[in-house]
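Cross-check.
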Amino acid sequence: MQLGFLPRVKFRQTSEREIGQIYAPAINRGLFVAVVVLVLGFGSSVALASAYGVAVTGTFILNTILFLAVARLLWHRPRRLIALGAIVFLSIEVTFFPANLTKIFHGGWLPLVIASIVFVALVTWRKGRDIVTVNRSHEEGPLGDFIRHLDARDFPVVRVPGTAVFLHANPRMTPLAMRANVEHNHVVHQNVVILSIKNERVPHIADSDRLVSDNLGDPEDRITCLTARFGFQDDTDVPATLRLADRLGLLEGRCDFDKATYFLSQITIVPGDAHGMSRWRKHLFLTTSHNAASPVEYFRLPDNRTITIGERIQL
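Predicted model, tokenized:
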């Protein structure tokens, strides 16, 4: 999820100190079904032995390669030491893997098929996400230009009472919901907060370090761009975060977050004729996107004060 290879799914952190110890209910249910099908399909541990051998020896090789990559790229160990480690470990493991390839037709094909399916799904989501991000940025446009030209439109833009909060991943671009609200409703709320969420690889972020505010160059327009940082054990509670920003004096104007309206930009992805992905991969991307967790529940937004504005983006 953090690297952009999967959509947002619901998961729970099970450790107060380690970021990698998580529980994902949906994935756990999928694993349960897969294990039951696997056991019933093979029928015995003897029949599973061939699949097990290919999976384990392949995992040995992948773990060694990843360990050597971390030792070189993150720990900056000398190349001679990396080469020595590769010779010592891989020379042994590579001999085991080809020996198990003879079992492919007796069950060893299963882990290779599973790995291929997972790999295709991951790279398809990453590729589709990159394409959608480019097309979405084209529709959004730079936030600074949008705000500067609010009063230069062909129709009058009216300031209405209240506070509007727009959740947006890229603080430099205009939220689609904000652009649609101006172009279709011709209104801007008296106080506007554009909130971006950033996840950090630490358990907790102190309240004093959580928020960064930007008035976008004009402190009089009452439009604030706010970036909130969360640790992996922190609750991503957007209303509570906004109240914290108000107490710290990071917002322009007087905002009432007990009555604020939250706007979400929901994009409807449709397969187009543009090159970059084959049509079957586009449909795979659309199927995967339907399993994404609801942002309303994830960010703890009030249901009765959350408005979703959609936009069609071609893939």
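Residues 143-314 form a domain with the Rossmann fold fold (CATH 3.40.50). The radius of gyration is 25 Å. Passed to J.P. for a second look.
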